[in-house]
């Protein structure tokens, strides 16, 4: 441990009435100051873990970073006291702050892949803070780093430090970053969404490694996440935040079992949408038969002999981790990546393999919605233009007729006509995705391919999108091919499920059958890796696993 | 060193050679298109038709253009750059000494300007948007905006005429003592430094600022590193490729683009040699100098490309 607290027994971290502000420069308006964090207080005892949870914009990361007196961009700490080890760090000056960063408090970022310097070997970066602050000699720091690599169950702990960041997988990098934070033996580590960017099967490993490391080193931690089930696995206490204000703060058990605030209950029950599976009565209108597809001129096979059917008005969910070929399947169906072998039949006729071989009507019948709604829209077009485009292109609509239809579509996505003249930049993440849905719907398609459409959204917003999609399906009779890595989403929306692993469909059928034991090893791994809102779930899940995740 | 990197480097070199060949065709074609007749310009207006015909025969000017091109190219490849028409001297010998002079001047200008530009760039990033940054950027911009002949004459006015510290005419000769030589080139080297400094400094600043947005800079800040350490250790290594590129471009300029400076200071380098012989319509000299300049330019750019490849850890250490 770094320094003994000045006053003996006080808490490690005591934040009082923290106020954080930022100057924003809205286009065409005078700069103004907005308050990101409104007088939040928290205390953290030595060796304890406090989870900070909330949707984006809740101020979780901002509060976490304030323990290092750091503000991202134009963010400034304008009020309150941050007492670490018995002293107010804001009074310590630049030198004092620099001395505590990387020494008393360390930081683990969401994307370790971006947070490591690509120009240096991992070991040099891991031990940099220890040497800088004179915690130990280089040899001693390296010994400790290797021991930490071992503890975090990294492969080849002796030599992994000699690698460059791009030579190590995302899940491993996240663990190396944890080792980096632990290496200078700090009193506190700020974990900022450390598993959010990882596959669910990798997340569980990293989560277990982090938890064990916290327990064995006795370091205290602020664990920031938007996923309550994840936070519940590692935290002693949980603090729920919204719009920079405290909503609720309590023990983990209390928060997840007896939430006192409405917002907390909404977070707890977020994954529960009851969805009755539709009977597979009708014959499929789109059949994918034995499709094999490859990149790099046939060299890298990403789809191997895949066959699936899509029934009218129903949802086929395709699940798997990154690299399993889910998105490639969508590209093959849409004609963006012509398959090497196999065929796709649509409404009884064979669909051209290449995009150029398809008629405009074929194109209209298959629409897509993407994960990143903001990059899927032209930032210089208004919502009205974006939604009106397919109406003009496929139906030749114009003028009043088109405007009326756009307004009708905006009503359908529960946004209202006031949005017609807005630009994408003025919309929230959920609203952007709704506009993308309206654009797809405007073409009156029979199938919409949804590629991870809720992955970039906050849970409550994502929930709204899923409910909207289900409602639209009931109204319009449109079918979905729903690509996701999130099994909770699958349970909420699917009628049938295809589980993909390394380019192959390993399990396929109606939802009730696919989710009914006995499972094959991969489906079992996938299902058991989804965090549950249950204390002790992590240990149980790790203990009961039959295969290692592909990320390792 | 692994295979892919060697392959990339080999590709660059092969491309460079191909480019040089294309340039040689262009140079040759360009000098053919120029109006006037070499024999006529040697013998003058009063030459008899018979004398002109004899000279053309002697110079091989009656052969078709492609034959003359290959004859010229063959000569170049064997080190024979031909004979100057005006002085009847061997071009290779005449160029040898002058190329050395040009390289000497470029070398000292580079030794001063490159480290200075990079250090100023680092300082500008460290104190970005403060008065240090603005002063550096302002002075650098001013020195680039002034035409090089103006900078040259300013230097001559103050250092040679008014204060008489350095000579205004940079005469150098074989066997000149080193210190004398350094004194002679002081003013042209300073002028060149001022011309290339701003470009390199501003590119260094921009390249590093670009890297400063990266998440790993935040990581370094949160380790408690000082701002200058962050720039030096974490930002600069990732900005090295664009910096090398602009440094090489300016090095090429120091060798190829010194014509004006050499003329102002009457410095016996390649540029002055080229200008003299353009005036005399001495086509073989113009061709030879043009080809050498092209080779220098392409060569330095290949070096920049290779350095950028080698500086990239993803290429140096494949998965």
UniProtKB/TrEMBL annotation, chain A:
Q: Which CDD domains match?
A: ABC_NikE_OppD_transporters (cd03257)
Does Nucleotide-binding count among this protein's keywords? Answer: yes
Domain ABC transporter: start-end pairs: 18-268, 286-527
Q: Name one GO molecular function term.
A: ATP binding
* InterPro entries the record matches: AAA+_ATPase, ABC_transp_ATP-bind, ABC_transporter-like_ATP-bd, ABC_transporter-like_CS, Oligopep_ABC_C, P-loop_NTPase
Any coiled-coil ranges, and where? none
Cell location: Cell inner membrane
Principal location class: membrane
Q: Does the keyword Nucleotide-binding apply?
A: yes
Identify one Pfam family in the record.
ABC_tran
Say which domain of life the source belongs to.
Bacteria
As for membrane topology, the entry says: Peripheral membrane protein
**Would you tell me the Gene Ontology cellular component terms?**
plasma membrane
Q: Which UniProt keywords apply?
A: ATP-binding, Nucleotide-binding, Transport
Q: Which GO terms describe its biological process?
A: peptide transport; transmembrane transport
Gene3D superfamilies reported in the protein's UniProt record: P-loop containing nucleotide triphosphate hydrolases
Which PANTHER family does the record associate with it? D,D-DIPEPTIDE TRANSPORT ATP-BINDING PROTEIN DDPF-RELATED, TRANSPORT ATP-BINDING PROTEIN
The entry's family comment says:
Belongs to the ABC transporter superfamily.
**Protein name (database record):** ABC transporter
Q: Please give the organism.
A: Aminobacter aminovorans (Chelatobacter heintzii)
From TrEMBL, chain B:
Q: Which CDD domains match?
A: TM_PBP2
Transmembrane region(s): 105-127, 139-161, 181-200, 239-265, 285-311
Its localization reads: Cell membrane
Q: Which Pfam families match?
A: BPD_transp_1, BPD_transp_1_N
Q: Got a GO cellular component term for this one? A: plasma membrane
For the ABC transmembrane type-1 domain, which residue ranges apply?
99-304
A single Gene Ontology biological process assigned to it is: transmembrane transport
Q: What are the record keywords, sorted?
A: Cell membrane, Membrane, Transmembrane, Transmembrane helix, Transport
Query: What membrane topology does this protein have?
Result: Multi-pass membrane protein
The record's similarity note reads: Belongs to the binding-protein-dependent transport system permease family.
Q: What is this protein called?
A: ABC transporter permease
Q: Record the organism.
A: Aminobacter aminovorans
């Amino acid at each position: 441990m770094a320094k003994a607290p000045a006053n003996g027994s006080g808490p490690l971290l005591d934040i009082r009435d923290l106020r954080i502000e930022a100057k924003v420069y809205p286009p065409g308006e005078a700069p103004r100051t907005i308050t990101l964090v409104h007088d939040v207080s928290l205390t953290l005892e030595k060796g304890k873990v406090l989870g900070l949870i909330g949707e984006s914009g809740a101020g979780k990361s901002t509060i976490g970073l304030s323990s290092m007196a750091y503000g991202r961009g134009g963010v400034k700490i304008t009020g309150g006291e941050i007492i670490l080890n018995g002293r107010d760090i804001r009074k310590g000056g630049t030198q004092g702050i620099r001395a505590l960063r990387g020494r008393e408090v360390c930081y683990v970022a969401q994307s370790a892949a971006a947070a490591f310097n690509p120009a240096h070997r991992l070991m040099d970066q891991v031990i940099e803070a220890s040497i800088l602050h004179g915690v130990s000699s280089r040899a001693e720091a390296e010994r400790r780093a290797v021991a930490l690599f071992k503890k975090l169950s990294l492969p080849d702990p002796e030599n992994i430090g000699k690698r460059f960041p791009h030579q190590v997988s995302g899940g491993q990098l996240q663990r190396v970053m944890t080792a980096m934070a632990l290496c200078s033996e700090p009193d506190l580590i700020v974990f900022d969404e450390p598993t959010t960017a990882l596959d669910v099967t990798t997340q569980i490993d990293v989560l277990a490694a982090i938890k064990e490391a916290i327990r064995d080193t006795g370091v205290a931690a602020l664990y920031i996440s938007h996923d309550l089930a994840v936070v519940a696995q590692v935290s002693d206490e949980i603090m729920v935040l919204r719009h920079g204000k405290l909503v609720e703060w309590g023990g983990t058990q209390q928060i997840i079992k007896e939430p006192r605030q409405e917002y907390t209950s909404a977070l707890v029950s977020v994954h529960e949408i009851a969805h009755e599976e539709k009977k597979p009565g009708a014959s499929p209108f789109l059949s994918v038969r034995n499709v094999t597809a490859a990149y790099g001129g046939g060299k890298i096979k990403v789809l191997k002999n895949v066959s699936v059917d899509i029934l009218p008005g129903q949802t086929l969910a395709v699940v798997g981790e990154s690299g399993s070929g889910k998105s490639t399947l969508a590209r093959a169906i849409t004609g963006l990546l012509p398959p090497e072998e196999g065929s796709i039949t649509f409404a009884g006729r064979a669909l051209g393999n290449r995009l150029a071989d398809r008629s405009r009507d074929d194109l209209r019948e298959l629409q897509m919605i993407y994960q990143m709604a903001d990059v899927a829209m032209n930032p210089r077009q208004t919502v009205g233009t974006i939604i009106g485009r397919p109406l003009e292109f496929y139906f030749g609509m114009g003028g009043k007729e088109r405007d009326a239809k756009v307004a009708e579509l905006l009503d359908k996505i529960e946004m209202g006509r006031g949005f017609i003249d807005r630009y994408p930049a003025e919309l929230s993440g959920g609203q952007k995705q709704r506009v993308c849905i309206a654009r797809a719907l405007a073409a009156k398609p029979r199938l919409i391919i949804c590629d991870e459409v809720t992955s970039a959204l906050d849970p409550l917003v994502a929930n709204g999108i899923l409910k909207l999609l289900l409602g639209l399906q009931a109204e319009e009779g449109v079918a979905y091919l729903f690509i996701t890595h999130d099994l909770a989403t699958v349970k909420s929306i699917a009628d049938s499920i295809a589980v993909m692993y390394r380019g192959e469909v390993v399990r396929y059928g109606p939802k009730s059958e696919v989710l009914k034991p006995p499972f094959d090893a991969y489906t079992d791994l996938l299902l058991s890796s989804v965090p549950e809102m249950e204390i002790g779930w992590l240990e149980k899940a790790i203990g009961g696993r039959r295969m290692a995740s592909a990320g390792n | 060193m692994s295979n892919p990197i060697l392959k990339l480097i080999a590709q660059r070199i092969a491309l460079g050679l191909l480019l040089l060949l294309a340039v040689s065709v262009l140079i040759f074609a360009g000098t053919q298109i120029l109006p006037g007749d070499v024999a006529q310009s040697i013998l003058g207006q009063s030459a008899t038709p018979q004398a002109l015909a004899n000279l053309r025969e002697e110079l091989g000017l009656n052969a078709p253009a492609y034959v003359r091109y290959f004859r010229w190219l063959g000569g170049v490849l064997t080190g024979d750059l031909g004979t100057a028409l005006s002085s009847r001297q061997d071009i290779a010998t005449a160029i040898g000494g002058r190329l050395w002079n040009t390289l000497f001047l470029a070398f000292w200008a580079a030794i001063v300007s490159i480290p200075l530009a990079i250090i100023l760039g680092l300082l500008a990033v460290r104190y970005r948007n403060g008065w240090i940054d603005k002063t550096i950027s302002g002075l650098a911009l001013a020195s680039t905006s002034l035409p090089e002949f103006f900078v040259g004459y300013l230097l001559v006015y103050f250092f040679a005429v008014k204060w008489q510290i350095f000579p205004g005419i940079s005469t150098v000769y074989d066997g000149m003592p080193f210190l004398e030589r350094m004194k002679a080139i002081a003013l042209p080297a300073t002028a060149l430094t001022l011309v290339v400094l701003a470009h390199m400094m501003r590119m260094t600043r921009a390249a590093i600022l670009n890297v400063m947005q990266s998440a790993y800079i935040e990581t370094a800040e949160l380790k408690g590193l000082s701002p200058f350490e962050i720039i030096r250790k974490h930002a600069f290594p990732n900005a090295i490729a664009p910096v090398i590129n602009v440094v090489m471009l300016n090095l090429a300029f120091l060798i190829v683009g010194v014509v004006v400076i050499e003329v102002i200071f009457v410095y016996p380098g390649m540029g002055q040699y080229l200008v003299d012989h353009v005036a005399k319509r001495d086509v073989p000299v113009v061709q030879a100098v043009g080809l050498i300049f092209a080779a220098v330019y392409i060569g330095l750019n290949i070096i920049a490309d290779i350095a950028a490849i080698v500086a990239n850890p993803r290429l140096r250490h494949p998965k």
